[in-house]
Specification:
The protein is 27% helix and 9% strand. By secondary structure, it is α/β, with parallel strands linked by helices.
């Protein structure tokens, strides 16, 4: 969360991190639980209808986190979109929408307790 700390420094304010979830992030913002959400927040029309969404400061896409020994096994979306592949995804945001749209044949588990601070790991292949 270096970007948040740098922004706070530039604004001359102390940064306090507040727990939220993707499904409740917009409600939490509107309830004044925090002032700014930083890190992995995607610009979309639904969010722009109820809050100001700035231009992005970083460009990124969805990336799978895969076991190192399996790195050559999952090279394409088609390699991942199979019933034998288990995917864990955080609920209520663009990650879940992406997984449901493009990886619908995979074995999908919604993981309720993924911290927003882990957002760099966009799609997590679960280990049981």
């Amino acid at each position: 969360m270096c970007a948040a700390k740098e922004l706070g420094k530039d604004l001359g304010v102390e940064v306090k991190f507040v727990a939220t979830t993707w499904p409740t992030m917009m409600k939490d913002l509107q309830a004044d639980k925090f002032d700014i959400a930083v890190g992995g927040v995607i610009r979309n029309t639904a969010r722009q209808k109820s809050a100001y969404v700035s231009q992005g400061y970083l460009s990124f896409g969805k990336v799978p986190l895969i076991h190192k020994e399996d790195k050559d096994k999952y090279l394409t979306i088609e390699d991942i979109n199979k019933p034998s592949v288990r995917i864990g995804v955080n609920p209520g945001g663009t990650n879940e929408a992406f997984v449901r749209k493009y990886l619908s044949n995979a074995n999908i588990t919604v993981v309720e307790k993924i911290s927003i601070s882990l957002i760099l790991f966009q799609i997590v292949r679960m280990m049981l």
